[in-house]
């Protein structure tokens, strides 16, 4: 089992550009959550996808959008990049009906906005 | 979201027990207490969770105060590989509820 995988590992963009990050959940999981982690801070919840729909959303602007595919993989899109979007973006997978169990995190994508 | 308070950092010697405290005075009756840790250059990793009773697993033990306003993560024998940031998180009951991270406790383990 490969666990949660994310691509790319690192990414450098300039202000105003758009970026797409990808996540494949752990085998058997149907729910994907995205988090943003700024340097020295804890991860902050962006949104969660289940059954190809956004189910929960954190306090992030509409520039942040996502998608979930029928195979449960997910994408995070960020438009009109700002310097402050530079962060580690983490994907976590779980079972929607799995109760208060654990979420499995990927290694993250490091985004640098210049 | 109910908040947690943790010390910014702690130190331990290798092979000694470590007690990581967490205060959560505004916890609701249905909030679960979760602990995750994040090793350098990795995503967070689940450690343990509980509701009211103390819990043990292969990684750690979780001691929950009777009034549930505080909890302690116990690493029975710290190793260098346990050096990480440890997050105490209150998680709402419900399907796949989000995790709300604070700044955590940075644990240093020395020889």
What brief labels describe this structure?
heterodimer, A: 114 residues, mainly beta, 7-stranded mixed sheet, 4-stranded antiparallel sheet, B: 111 residues, globular
How would you characterize this protein structure?
The complex is a heterodimer of chains A (114) and B (111). Chain A has 114 residues and is an all-beta fold. Chain A is 0% helix and 50% strand. Chain A is built from no helices and 11 strands. In chain A, strand 4 (31-37) and strand 5 (44-50) form a beta hairpin. Chain A is globular. The model of chain A has no long low-confidence stretch (mean pLDDT 95). Helix content of chain B is 0%, strand content 45%. Chain B is built from no helices and 9 strands. Chain B has strands spanning 9-13, 18-23, 32-38, 45-50, 55-56, 61-64, 70-75, 84-91, 105-110. In chain B, strand 6 and strand 7 (70-75) form a beta hairpin. Chain A binds chain B through residues 4, 31, 33, 35, 40-45, 48, 50, 55-56, 58, 90, 92, 94-108, and chain B through 32, 34, 41-46, 49, 51, 85, 87, 91, 93, 95-104.
